[in-house]
Amino acid sequence: MPLSLPLHSPLPNTSLFLPLSSHPPNFTLSTLPTINLHRRRRINHHHRSLTTTTTIRASVIQYDTTQQQPLLQVNDLKAKIVENGVEILHGVNLTVNQGEVHAIMGKNGSGKSTFAKVLVGHPEYEVTGGSVVFKGENLLDMEPEERSLAGLFMSFQSPVAIPGVSNDEFLVMAYNARRRKLGLPELGPLECFSYLMEKLKLVNMKPDFLNRNVNEGFSGGERKRNEILQLAVLGADLAILDEIDSGLDVDALRDVANAVNQLLTPKNSLLMITHYRRLLDLLKPTHVHVMVSYK
Ligand code: ADP
Ligand code: MG
């Protein structure tokens, strides 16, 4: 039976809607409780409404359908690990509309990172069923770099270093590639410099970040900030942030959340994976899902 929380309620504790151990593996969506938080929040001067907190059946993510333009439509997505053939995603469904902020929570090992990596085309995974449509196109047909150029961004749970490539070179190259894709003229060195400085300010990072090699010698927190800098520079229609909170202290988390909030518009969307309640308070999802690992 749907549960309703009063307007002033804090975001639900997962234990409220995720009685993982008490559900048999074969229960259906219709038997699950749904928590509706009827309230509106203000983000970056745009209103986003927190419409649902979901409820999941075995790796299936339930979603709300609204009248908005769907940005991402995932239907019955199944994927396995290439190396050992183990299926991790058993049929995931998710719709993200423009302007929505979705959070995916769930136990370690339930497949959250796998889901995100499959969306961006990570070669460790093979899709074995289902479909993914992004901005009206078949995402699964695209190479990873095409997905990125099309406006899909992902911040990995453990961002990797790229030795020998400086941050500013990397950002300028990637940004100009995206501009070309959008039919915009490339920026010259001076324009790039002022553009990057503006974005550094947004994420509250020092300019010397630009001269360092991508993530080389960066602390965990610096890597996470650097991911948000990349997002700020590249822009995205859908940004997927996998545990962006890990390794961040309270101040850094606030900076990162502020930056992300400033990047949100009614046209773009965010899919964040997190265990951390404080991130939900800061980024104010419109939808919360819980991923469960069993078939
Ligand atoms: P989550 O992000 O929810 O913690 P993951 O998607 O990282 O979960 O992992 C889901 C399951 O798949 C785990 O059991 C994990 O060990 C396994 N897994 C994911 N990727 C790989 C891989 N590349 N090789 C082997 N096992 C993997
Ligand atoms: Mg993970």
Structure description:
The chain is of the alpha/beta class. The protein has a single domain (3-290), classed as P-loop containing nucleotide triphosphate hydrolases (Rossmann fold, 3-Layer(aba) Sandwich). Helix content is 28%, strand content 29%. The protein is built from 8 helices and 18 strands. Helix 6 runs parallel beside helix 7. Residues 1-66 have low confidence and may be disordered. The site of adenosine-5'-diphosphate has 12 residues, from helix 2. GO terms for molecular function: ATP binding; ATP hydrolysis activity. InterPro entries: AAA+_ATPase, ABC_transporter-like_ATP-bd, ABC_transporter-like_CS, FeS-cluster_ATPase_SufC, P-loop_NTPase. Residues 72-292 form the ABC transporter domain. Keywords: ATP-binding, Nucleotide-binding. This is ABC transporter domain-containing protein.
Provide tags for this entry.
alpha/beta, 8 helices, binds adenosine-5'-diphosphate, ATP hydrolysis activity, four-stranded antiparallel β-sheet, binds magnesium ion, ABC transporter domain-containing protein, ATP-binding, ATP binding, Rossmann fold
Low-confidence segments? 1-66
**CATH homologous superfamily (4th level) name:** P-loop containing nucleotide triphosphate hydrolases
Topology as H/E string?
EHEEEEEEEEEHEEHEEHHEHEHEHE
Kindly name the structural category: alpha/beta
Pfam family, one: ABC_tran
Keywords: ATP-binding, Nucleotide-binding
Domain ABC transporter: 72-292
Protein name: ABC transporter domain-containing protein
